[in-house]
Design a protein that fits this description.
single chain; 433 residues; alpha/beta; 5-stranded parallel beta sheet; 5-stranded mixed beta sheet; 17 helices; 10 strands; elongated
């Protein structure tokens, strides 16, 4: 059992939090309450607390002073600050006092429970992750990343137009995203629970792979899901197209680096359509739901588009990933059959199916036992045979209809596949008038 102290001068908030924590089944918590910093100090003089959840702005002794006293008395105690949006000026002081988490009251119970879970994992862990990921575990970087995440999330949930206050807050935390330009969203589902440290390490890997074309900021995190806001350095349409291509093209490299470096697997889902900040809430919630409910981190999908999880059909938004994979072959085969005279390159198919190319190719072979080239050839030959049997189109016309630029190329491939030429096949089969 872990001993937790809640400190807030607003009794309603203190009592509500205590009731919520006492009722949670996620952790075994022994919960205490204090309605002032001074009252908290009295309890801290009597008991050792594993976690202290404190407001910052309180009359008399504020949260910063309380954290300093806790650090002196109980250096292993974890402190979580809950604060309002306008209190970012306390960030540096919170960092100096080695506060474990700095979260907004508006973020809700789930975020607080996640923060408590992080503290408990740290308490239970004999070896701190800082030993193996020193750059990702620099305390200043970690806390600054938390503050940046909170600010980005507040802006998204608020659905408000950027203000000079928001711009100043962005500047103070060195957030380079432009509040007056649209952004894209990327979500990742991880194979294990995310701590702030692990999330920061994943973000660093992502930045290293795509920062030359895309700026990124973390926006949201739950136990296994993370979301990033993305924006190209320049605002031209070409810059967005390039950024989209980079995210798609680098997805597997990012996933591989995360697995090799951090020993976890992750799969991404991409909302590539640019959206302005004050319209982000709905796509943000949609992406969060897909990533946390429909995307399996062990599926080997490096990256899928949001449209993939809609299955391409009306009313299919509720499918889980297993259902989608069952329909994966049918959707792909239907598209190839309907567009047999067009471009069926891997890149084109991946765009239409909203999957990264290498995953599409690999998964298709896993499910069918044949590669895409073989499947496309079969469809072309079946269609060509049908046309040769049932129509009087010239062979050069049929060649165009099944995706070959010249009759000679078509005839060569047809003979290799069917052991006879198109004309010999037609003569043997006959034309149905």
């Amino acid at each position: 059992m872990y001993r937790v102290l809640i400190v807030d001068d607003e009794e309603m908030i203190t009592d509500s939090l205590a009731s919520m924590l006492e009722g949670t089944k996620r952790y075994e918590l022994d919960v205490y309450k204090a309605y002032s910093g001074a009252e908290a100090l009295l309890l801290l003089g009597k008991y050792q607390f594993d976690i202290v959840i404190s407001d910052i702005c309180m009359p008399g002794m504020n949260g910063i002073s309380l954290a300093e006293s806790i650090r002196q008395r109980w250096p292993l105690c974890h402190v979580i600050f809950q604060t309002g949006y306008d209190e970012f000026q306390y960030a540096r002081q919170a960092i100096e006092q080695k506060v474990t988490h700095y979260i907004l009251k508006s973020e809700g119970d789930e975020i607080l429970l996640n923060a408590i879970g992080d503290c408990i994992r740290s308490i239970d862990c004999d070896a701190d992750m800082q030993d193996t990921l020193s750059r990702a575990r620099e305390e200043a970087d970690l806390y600054k990343a938390i503050l940046r995440r909170n600010l980005i999330q507040t802006q998204i949930y608020g659905q408000i137009r950027p203000t000079s206050h928001t711009e100043r807050a962005f500047k103070k935390l060195n957030i380079t995203l432009n509040l007056n330009q649209p952004v894209m969203l990327l979500a990742g589902h991880c194979s294990q629970e995310l701590t702030d440290e692990l999330f920061l390490a994943i973000s660093l890997i992502l930045q290293e792979k795509v920062s030359y074309a895309v700026r990124s900021e973390a926006a949201w995190m739950n136990r296994q899901t993370a979301i990033w806001v993305l924006q190209p350095p320049k605002q031209e349409a070409e810059a967005f197209r390039h950024a989209q291509a980079v995210i798609k093209g680098m997805a597997e490299s990012v996933c591989r680096a995360i697995t090799q470096t951090l020993a976890v697997s992750i799969s991404f889902v991409f909302q590539e359509k640019p959206v302005f900040w004050d319209q982000l809430s709905q796509p943000f919630e949609e992406l969060k739901y897909i990533a946390s409910s429909l995307l399996r981190p062990d599926s080997s999908i490096a990256l899928a588009g949001v449209e993939y999880f809609k299955g391409g059909d009306e009313g299919s938004d509720g499918q889980n990933e297993a259902d989608l994979e069952k329909s994966f072959i049918n959707r792909l085969m239907t598209y190839m059959t309907e567009h047999i005279d067009g471009d069926l390159s891997l890149c084109t198919l991946s765009e239409k199916l909203h999957l990264n190319p290498s995953y599409l190719s690999r998964r298709f072979k896993e499910l069918t036992g044949k590669n895409l080239t073989e499947a496309i050839l079969e469809i072309r030959m079946e269609t060509a045979c049908h046309l040769l049997r049932t129509t009087s189109f010239r062979i050069s016309e049929i060649a165009q209809m099944v995706g070959y630029e010249t009759a000679a190329n078509f005839s060569r491939v047809f003979k290799k596949s069917m052991k006879v030429t198109p004309r010999e096949f037609r003569d043997e089969e006959g034309i149905i008038q």
